[in-house]
C-alpha cells in the first residue's frame, strides 16, 4: 500500500528543477501512506515526473522500489495497491519467457502492461489499485483506478501542467495549483456527507471514477482540455449481465457455493509478508471474514475491535464472544468520549477534503489499534451493498406500500406528529416495549430512525423514497450562498439501471456511489493515516459477480437482509452470537455536540464565523443548531457536514 504523485507538463513551461522540487514536496505529503521508502523518476525532456511512497507488504526488500521501469524500458509505473492474483499472472508471464527480479506485485504489473497492454492487464487484475504509468514510446500518461474505487487518485490542472496524487494534500504541493474552493461541491457534501466523484472540493480538480482509465498526451496539455476517462469495467453492466444469468439451485447449494467463493477471496487477501489481522465489529460482515480467515489459517488470527460505554453504540461484547468462539488472538479497546473526541482535530488533514461520515472517528481508532500489531487488516466492508444489509432496502419496500395506499395529506400529518416527539422520547418508549417486538424488527437508535422514516412519508414514488433516504439535507441550497448542486449519478435518474426489482436497483446504486464515495474513502484515509493497509475481500469481483446471480429472496427476506450470508456464517458461528439488530459503526455525535463538543461546535457555527467564511446562510444553520441544542430533534447528520467543512476551512 502506498501513495503516488506526479506531473506532466509541456516542455517549455517551467524549469525541470522546479518540477522535481514540487514532486518531492508532493511525495512528502504522502509519507503517512508509505513510511518505508520513497522514490522518484523523471524525464526532463518529456516533461514527466513520477513519485512514490511505499508501505512494504509483499517482498519487503529494495527490489520492490518504485517507480519501476519495465524490462523493455518502455513503461514506468508508480502504483498504489495490491494485486492479489499476482502469483497467477506471474506464472502466465513466466511461460512467455519473462524473468523476474523480485517477488513484488509491482514488477508483475509493469511487465503485464508491457506484454499485454494496459486495458487487458486491468481486466485481468484481482485487487485494489490506483496507478500512473508513463508510456515512453507513445509519450502518454495513463492513470487508472480499480473496479470499485478502493484506492483513490485525484488529478488537476496546475497552470499548464496536469498533476495527480493519491490525496489532495499532494495536489496542493504543486505551486501553480490555485486551490480555489468549488462552492457547488459543498451542496453535495451537505446532501451526501461526502463529495462524490468525479467532483472535488476544488475547481479544476477531479477524482478518477472507479473502473476507469484517464489518458493524457501532449495534445491534451496544449489544448488544456479536461481529459475524459474511459471505462474498462462497469459495475452496472456486470450486475445486469449476471442478473440475467441466475443460479438455479436450492438454498443449501447456493450457500455452499458462496462459501467457496468467499473462501477464495479471503485467502487471496491474506497474501502478505507483513503481519496481518482483521477488524472484528461483531456484525455479520466482519464476522464472516474473520471466520473464513481462521479457517484458512494455521494459527490464531489477530482481531481488533473497539467499544463504547454507550450501549446503543457498543458491539465490543459481541465481537469478544465471536473471537472467543473462533479462537482468534483478540485485542479490544474501550474508548472514552474524550479519547474519541481527541480524533476530531485530526480529521481535516486526515481527509484533506471535507468528509462527514462520523464513523470516520471509530474507523481511525480501530485502525490505530490494529497498527500496533499488524501492517495489513482485512475489513468486512461491501457486504451490505452486495447482500442487502442496509435498513433502507427493507424500509423502502414497506414505505412504498404505505405511500401507494395512503393519501398525501394524511401522510404529511402523520409525519408531523411523529417528528413532534423528540427522538430521545422515542428511544425511551421503544426500550420499554422492545421485549415484545420480534428480534428481526428490533433496531438500535429507534428515535433517530423513526424520524428519518417520517421524513420520507411525503415521497412521490419509490425513487423519491431512496433519494430522501440517502440525503442528509433534502434542500442543501437553503443553507448555502451562491451554490448550485452539480449533477451526479444519483441525481440523473435516466442513467440508473433498468433493473426491475427496486431493492436490487438500490443495492447497485449504493455500490457505485455510497460505497466508493463514502465507505471506501473513510476506510482508506483512516487506515492509511497510520500506515495500515486495509483489504476488502467482499469487493473481489468474483464475489460481486456471484452475488448478482442470486435471487433477491436469498438476500432480503421478510424484514431483514443478508439471508444467504447468515447461512454461510452459521456454519462457523452459532446464530445466537450474531443474530442481533444492525447497529452500524457510529458514535453518539448528537449527544457530544450538546455537551463535550458544544464549545467547539459553537465556535465553528457562530454567526460571525459563518458569515466570515461566506459559504453558508448563517440564519438557517444557526436555527438548526439551536433546535438541536434544545433537544427537539437530533440534527447530527445535517450539522456534521457543516462542522466538517468549517473545520477543514480553518485548517487551510
Please, could you describe this protein's structure?
- With 652 residues, the chain is of the alpha+beta class.
- Helix content is 44%, strand content 14%.
- The strands form three sheets. Strands 2-3-1-9-8-10 form a six-stranded antiparallel sheet. A six-stranded antiparallel sheet has the order 4-5-6-7-11-12.
- Strand 6 (127-135) and strand 7 (140-145) form a beta hairpin.
- Helix 9 packs across helix 24, helix 10 runs parallel beside helix 24 (563-569) and helix 28 crosses helix 29.
- The longest helix is centred in the middle third of the chain and has 19 residues, at 251-269.
- It is globular and about 70 Å long.
Task: Spell out the blueprint of helices and strands.
Blueprint: E1 2-8, H1 16-28, E2 37-43, E3 48-54, E4 68-69, E5 75-83, H2 86-95, H3 105-116, H4 118-124, E6 127-135, E7 140-145, E8 154-158, E9 161-165, H5 168-171, H6 183-192, E10 205-207, E11 212-216, H7 218-223, E12 230-231, H8 235-243, H9 251-269, E13 276-279, H10 284-296, E14 302-308, H11 316-326, E15 329-335, H12 337-341, H13 347-351, H14 360-371, E16 376-378, H15 383-387, H16 391-405, H17 408-419, H18 423-433, H19 446-454, H20 462-469, H21 502-512, H22 514-528, E17 533-535, H23 541-547, H24 563-569, H25 589-594, H26 598-604, H27 607-613, H28 618-629, H29 636-651
Parallel strand pairs: 13-14, 13-16, 14-15, 16-17
Antiparallel strand pairs: 1-3, 1-9, 2-3, 4-5, 5-6, 6-7, 7-11, 8-9, 8-10, 11-12
Helix pairs in contact: 2-3, 3-4, 6-29, 9-10, 9-23, 9-24, 10-24, 14-22, 16-20, 16-21, 17-19, 18-19, 21-22, 28-29
Amino acid at each position: 500500500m502506498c501513495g503516488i504523485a506526479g506531473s506532466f507538463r509541456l516542455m517549455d513551461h517551467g524549469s525541470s528543477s522546479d518540477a522535481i522540487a514540487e514532486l518531492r514536496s508532493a511525495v512528502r505529503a504522502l509519507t503517512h501512506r508509505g513510511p518505508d521508502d520513497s522514490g522518484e523518476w523523471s524525464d526532463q525532456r518529456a516533461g514527466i515526473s513520477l513519485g512514490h511512497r511505499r508501505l512494504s507488504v509483499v517482498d519487503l526488500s529494495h527490489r520492490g522500489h518504485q517507480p519501476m521501469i519495465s524490462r523493455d524500458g518502455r513503461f514506468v509505473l508508480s502504483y498504489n495497491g495490491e494485486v492479489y492474483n499476482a502469483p497467477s499472472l506471474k506464472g502466465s508471464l513466466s511461460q512467455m519467457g519473462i524473468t523476474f527480479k523480485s517477488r513484488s506485485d509491482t514488477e508483475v504489473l509493469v511487465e503485464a502492461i508491457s506484454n499485454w497492454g494496459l486495458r487487458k492487464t486491468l481486466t485481468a487484475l484481482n485487487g485494489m489499485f490506483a496507478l500512473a504509468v508513463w508510456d515512453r514510446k507513445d509519450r502518454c500518461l495513463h492513470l487508472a483506478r480499480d473496479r470499485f474505487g478502493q484506492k483513490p487518485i485525484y488529478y488537476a490542472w496546475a497552470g499548464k501542467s496536469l498533476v495527480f496524487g493519491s490525496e489532495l494534500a499532494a495536489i496542493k504541493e504543486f505551486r501553480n495549483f490555485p486551490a480555489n474552493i468549488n462552492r457547488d461541491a459543498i451542496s453535495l457534501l451537505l446532501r451526501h456527507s461526502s463529495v462524490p466523484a468525479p467532483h472535488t472540493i476544488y475547481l479544476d480538480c477531479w477524482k478518477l471514477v472507479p473502473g476507469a482509465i484517464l489518458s493524457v498526451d501532449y495534445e491534451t496539455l496544449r489544448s488544456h482540455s479536461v481529459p475524459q476517462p474511459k471505462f474498462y469495467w462497469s459495475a452496472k453492466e456486470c450486475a445486469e449481465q449476471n442478473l440475467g444469468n441466475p443460479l438455479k439451485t436450492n438454498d443449501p447449494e447456493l450457500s455452499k457455493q458462496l462459501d467457496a467463493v468467499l473462501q477464495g477471496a479471503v485467502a487471496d487477501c491474506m497474501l502478505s509478508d507483513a503481519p496481518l489481522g482483521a477488524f472484528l465489529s461483531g456484525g455479520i460482515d466482519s464476522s464472516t471474514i474473520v471466520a473464513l480467515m481462521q479457517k484458512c489459517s494455521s494459527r490464531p488470527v489477530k482481531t481488533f475491535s473497539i467499544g463504547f460505554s454507550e450501549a446503543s453504540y457498543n458491539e465490543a461484547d459481541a465481537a469478544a464472544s465471536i473471537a472467543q468462539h473462533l479462537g482468534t488472538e483478540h485485542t479490544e479497546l474501550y474508548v472514552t468520549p474524550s479519547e474519541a473526541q481527541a480524533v476530531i482535530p485530526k480529521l481535516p488533514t486526515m481527509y484533506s477534503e471535507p468528509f462527514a461520515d462520523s464513523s470516520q472517528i471509530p474507523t481511525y481508532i480501530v485502525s490505530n489499534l490494529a497498527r500496533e500489531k499488524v501492517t495489513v487488516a482485512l475489513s468486512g466492508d461491501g457486504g451490505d451493498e452486495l447482500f442487502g444489509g442496509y435498513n433502507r432496502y427493507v424500509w423502502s419496500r414497506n414505505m412504498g406500500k404505505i405511500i401507494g395506499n395512503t393519501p398525501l395529506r394524511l401522510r404529511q400529518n402523520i409525519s408531523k406528529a411523529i417528528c413532534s416527539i423528540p427522538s430521545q422520547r422515542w428511544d425511551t418508549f421503544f426500550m420499554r416495549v422492545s421485549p415484545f417486538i420480534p428480534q428481526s424488527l428490533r433496531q438500535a437508535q429507534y428515535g433517530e430512525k423513526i424520524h428519518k422514516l417520517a421524513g420520507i412519508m411525503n415521497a412521490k414514488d419509490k425513487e423519491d423514497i431512496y433519494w430522501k433516504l440517502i440525503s442528509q439535507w433534502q434542500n442543501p441550497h437553503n443553507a448555502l450562498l451562491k451554490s448550485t448542486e452539480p449533477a451526479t449519478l444519483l441525481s440523473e435518474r435516466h442513467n440508473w439501471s433498468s433493473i426491475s426489482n427496486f431493492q436490487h436497483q438500490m443495492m447497485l446504486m449504493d455500490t457505485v456511489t455510497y460505497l466508493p464515495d463514502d465507505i471506501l474513502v473513510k476506510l482508506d484515509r483512516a487506515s492509511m493515516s497510520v500506515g495500515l493497509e486495509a483489504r476488502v475481500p467482499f469487493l473481489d469481483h468474483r464475489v460481486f459477480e456471484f452475488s448478482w446471480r442470486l435471487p433477491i429472496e436469498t438476500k432480503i427476506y421478510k424484514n431483514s437482509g443478508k439471508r444467504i450470508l447468515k447461512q454461510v456464517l452459521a456454519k462457523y458461528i452459532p446464530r445466537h452470537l450474531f443474530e442481533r439488530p444492525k447497529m452500524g459503526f457510529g458514535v453518539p455525535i448528537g449527544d457530544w455536540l450538546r455537551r463535550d463538543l458544544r464549545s467547539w461546535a459553537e465556535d465553528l457555527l457562530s454567526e460571525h464565523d459563518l458569515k466570515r467564511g461566506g459559504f453558508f446562510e448563517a440564519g438557517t444553520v444557526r436555527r438548526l443548531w439551536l433546535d438541536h441544542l434544545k433537544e427537539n430533534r437530533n440534527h447530527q447528520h445535517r450539522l456534521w457536514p457543516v462542522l466538517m467543512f468549517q473545520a477543514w476551512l480553518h485548517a487551510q
